[in-house]
Amino acid sequence: MNVSSIVVKTAPEYRDEVIAGINSIDLCEVHFSDASGRIVATIEGETIGDEMAKLERIQGMPHVLSADLMYAYSEGELAEAMEQIKKGNPVPERLKS
After folding, report:
1. Domains detected in the chain
2. pLDDT attached to residue 46
3. pTM of the model
4. pLDDT below 70 — which residues of the chain?
5. Which residues on adjacent β-strands are paired with residue 39?
6. How far, in Å, CA of 63 to CA of 83, rounded?
7. Which pLDDT belongs to residue 28?
8. What are the contacts of 22-26 at 24+ separation with CB within 8 A?
9. DSSP 8-state symbol, 61
């Protein structure tokens, strides 16, 4: 399973409508919004392609000014990190410089 966070921007008067649209998509959930029309949500999918299809669907919704990927997580990354921790290498090489 892959999980990504996205930030969506809409005009304040359409915030509730856009939130309802995002929440209506399977495995999409709004976690935060503010009065200026910023919305933070997560999208999940079996593959990155599934997630990108959901992001594109949100980008195409009426009144969405922008929808951008902020963070992505893949179960495969977790498995790799856990293996490194078991081997006694908790800090990735790229962070050791």
Report:
1. 2-91 (3.30.70.920)
2. 86
3. 0.77
4. 76-78, 81, 89-97
5. 8, 33
6. 44
7. 96
8. 22/58, 22/61, 25/54, 25/57, 25/58
9. S
The pLDDT, as a whole number, for residue 90 is 66
Q: How many helices (H) and strands (E) does the chain have?
A: 3, 4
Would you say 64 and 33 are in contact if contact means Cβ atoms under 8 Å apart? no
Q: Is 51 left (phi over 0), alpha (psi -120 to 50) or beta?
A: alpha
Residues 6+ apart with CB under 8 A from 96: none
> Residue 30 forms beta bridges with which residues?
41
Mapped onto helix, strand or coil, the DSSP state of residue 4 is: strand
Which helix (H) or strand (E) covers residue 5, if one does?
strand 2-10
